Amino acid sequence: MNDLPPDVSRLRVLETWLQITLARVREQIAIAEQHAAQQERVIPPPPPDWVVQLSVGGEGQPIAVHVGGCRSAGRRTRPISRAQAMRAVTDGVEPCVLCRPDTELGIL
């Protein structure tokens, strides 16, 4: 059982249609690959200048102040302003011993 036409002229028409369809599929693949490459190149936003590390628990009390981007801050952080960072350090929240936000803030 053959599902293709027996004559050359109709086979050539099918061949042309398949070539056009293949070209369209390849064009769509190129567009999809370009879109995927652009998605990979998305640059993450810069870290905030200052973060406060929060304790585990319902209210999440501040336990340390860090310079933004400090790797020891962990995941439970919240961005804060320079004024809030200064206030937290002067109010007794521990400054990180690695990134030294107190030095960056001018508090010694």
* Fraction of residues in helix: 40-55%
Shape: rod-shaped
Give the integer mean of the pLDDT values. 91
What fraction of residues sit in β-strands?
15-25%
Structural summary, described in words:
By secondary structure, the protein is α+β, with helices and mostly antiparallel strands. Helix content is 44%, strand content 16%. The chain is built from 3 helices and 4 strands, in the order αβββαβα. It has helices at 8-40, 82-90, 101-105, and strands at residues 50-54, 62-67, 77-80, 94-95. The longest helix has 33 residues, at 8-40. The chain starts with 7 loop residues before the first helix and ends with a helix.
Q: Could you give a short description of this structure?
A:
With 108 residues, this protein is of the alpha+beta class. 44% of the residues lie in helices and 16% in strands.
SSE blueprint and pairings:
Blueprint: H1 8-40, E1 50-54, E2 62-67, E3 77-80, H2 82-90, E4 94-95, H3 101-105
Parallel strand pairs: 2-4
Antiparallel strand pairs: 1-2, 1-3
Features:
single chain; 108 residues; alpha+beta; 4-stranded mixed beta sheet; 16% strand
